[in-house]
Amino acid sequence: MTYTVVHDATEIVTGPADEDSETLQTETGAAVVIEDGTVSAVGPSAEITAEYPPANAETAVDASGNCILPGFVDSHTHALFVGDRSDEFEAKLAGKSYQEILADGGGILRTVRNVREATDGELAAQLRTHLDVMLANGTTTAEVKSGYGLDTDIELRMLAVIDRVNENHPVGLVPTFMGAHAVPDDTTSEAYTESVVTEQLPTVADQGIAEFCDVFCEADVFSVEQSRRILTAGQEHGLTPKIHADEFARLGGSQLAAELSAASADHLLQSTPEDAASLVDNGVTPTFLPGTAFGLDGEYPRLAPFEERGTIPAIATDFNPNCYAPTLGFAATLACVGVGMTPAQAIRGITERGAAALDRTDGRGTLRTGAPGDLVVLDAPTYRHLPYKYDGALVETVLKDGTVVH
Ligand SMILES: N=CN[C@@H](CCC(=O)O)C(=O)O
Ligand SMILES: [Zn+2]
């Protein structure tokens, strides 16, 4: 019998509390056992270690003084990018808006130019570098979008790079096709939508790597009608919809997500209580991206309409060159300080709610029996310290499928 045992933890967060969904279930003085990559036992350390002695374990981690959390799930990233946009940060500080930068050929379109010029090796190396930082800060599962190619060949290349890196990086990747991330500057949104539907989507579906299809449904980008066309075509090709909705304008992206039963609707800065109700009623996981809100004008999405319906949003980083913040612990801090979540809600947001936004039903984001053996050992005694000590460096050890990977 080979097993990993993490023992004598000051606190283990096993998942949401059963009776009150806004709080966490925790055990003190506890241990967790992982066999064949899966959690096989959680409970009082003395009982667990009597059955699974650390001395006989393949891997034993003494977690005294530490809090153990489920591995973090980042359900929204654009982590495959190259190039620098630090001057756009300065332009924004000087008053230029994100949309003005994009309209001038900067923003996403600038990263598209950089990605198109990069070799596959350069793209893979940069993605690995980004994932190393994410892993060191507790992320064990991450969605990664294409969307900096904006033509069939480069979108396919991006997805192939994500797939290749996924073979040998500890962070488990979930690939999303996002050909509809922006409109290339040599075409119109109508013509480009047509090419996404008739050229990109069939080829991407044949390639068989992408699991989700995402659209930037926004004023001057893709209309609701265009987004509907792309997402339903994606569904016909077997890709589950996700959507960037209600970020700058309330165009109707949330309502579209509800209509299509999307896996998630993300950003939601302009969403109304009616939008929140539609999302919740149709099983769409609302996803807040507080790092992006922090870097724009500091307007955060509203929690109350979701809370009132018993739903905690997922919290994701949206890591991209406009939001250079790949750390979910920091996103959790912003979820507390900016959105007004409690630390328990924020921890739920970066764990099992993130898993829900990716349609994962394998217990990911919890540490219950049968869940993946993905664990974060904090250099702190309680989960509350994660959003509280917000300058990072709180993650001591990370296990993926029961193996120490950081
Ligand atoms: N808004 C669209 N996409 C990203 C930004 C990507 C970029 O600026 O490169 C987002 O979710 O914030
Ligand atoms: Zn995004």
Fold and architecture overview:
The protein has 406 residues and is α/β, with parallel strands linked by helices. The chain folds into two domains: 106 residues, Urease, subunit C, domain 1, CATH 2.30.40; 286 residues, Metal-dependent hydrolases (TIM Barrel), CATH 3.20.20.140. The protein contains 16 helices and 16 strands. Strands 1, 2, 3, 4, 5, 14, 15 and 16 form an eight-stranded mixed β-sheet that branches. Strand 11, helix 10 and strand 12 form a beta-alpha-beta unit. The longest helix has 19 residues. The radius of gyration is 21 Å and the shape is globular. The chain binds N-(iminomethyl)-L-glutamic acid and zinc ion. Zinc ion binds next to loops. It catalyses: 4-imidazolone-5-propanoate + H2O = N-formimidoyl-L-glutamate. Its main location: cytoplasm. Keywords: Cytoplasm, Histidine metabolism, Hydrolase, Iron, Metal-binding, Zinc.
